Amino acid sequence: MNEDIRALIDYRMEEAHDALEEATILLHSRKARGALNRVYYAMFYAVLALLASRQMSASKHSRAIALFHREFVKKGVIPVEVAKFLDIAFDLRNKSDYRDFVEPELKRVEELREAAVQFIGAIETGLKTPVLYPSPK
Fold first, then answer.
1. pTM as predicted
2. CA distance 82 to 9
3. Domain boundaries 3-130, corresponding CATH code
4. How far apart are CA 113 and CA 4, in angstroms?
5. Would you place residue 102 in the very low, low, confident or very high pLDDT band (cuts 50, 70, 90)?
6. Domain boundaries, the chain
7. Contact predicate 109/59, CB 8 Å
8. Are 100 and 24 in contact (CB under 8 A)?
9. Using an 8 Å Cβ cutoff, are 85 and 67 in contact?
10. What's the burial of 38, exposed, middle or buried (CB within 10 Å: 0-12/13-18/19+)?
11. Rounded to whole angstroms, how far apart are CA atoms 85 and 67?
12. Helix axes 80-98, 32-52, angle to 10 degrees
């Protein structure tokens, strides 16, 4: 694998872990909206790392998520039951960030944070799968 791609993957995974840590801090302060944002971004950054492993990217979140489902979920690299957490977080984060008077429930965000840990773990496992790194031709 190209050193630049490996560096990008590592950078994105570091962003994912940092966002997850930020979510934890916000949850301890009972800041559900901010924590939800960071939970979603933790998962999203992990998706970007996975896409980078195939030299793919997208300028829109919805496109990156669609590529993730097409290239990794439908092909069995990431289990459907884990992938659904990204969709839930994306939907709730959009409602929370862009609609008035929408405050996510703290308990729900705590559950999604735990799901994000599982999600990122699945991505890390997927990144270790040799099929993701085709040998150079």
1. 0.91
2. 20
3. 1.20.120.330
4. 30
5. confident
6. 3-130
7. no
8. no
9. no
10. buried
11. 16
12. 130
d(Cα 88, Cα 98) in Å, to the nearest integer? 15
22: tokens are 């930020």
The answer to whether the CB of 78 falls within 8 A of the CB of 126 is yes
Structure-token pair, residue 1: 């694998």
Q: What is the pLDDT of residues 21-74, one digit of tens each?
A: 999 999 999 999 999 999 999 999 999 999 999 999 999 999 999 999 999 999
Q: Which two tokens stand for residue 66?
A: 């669609």
Tokens for 98, please give them.
């862009």
Task: Find the DSSP H helices in the chain.
Answer: 3-28, 32-52, 61-68, 80-98, 106-127
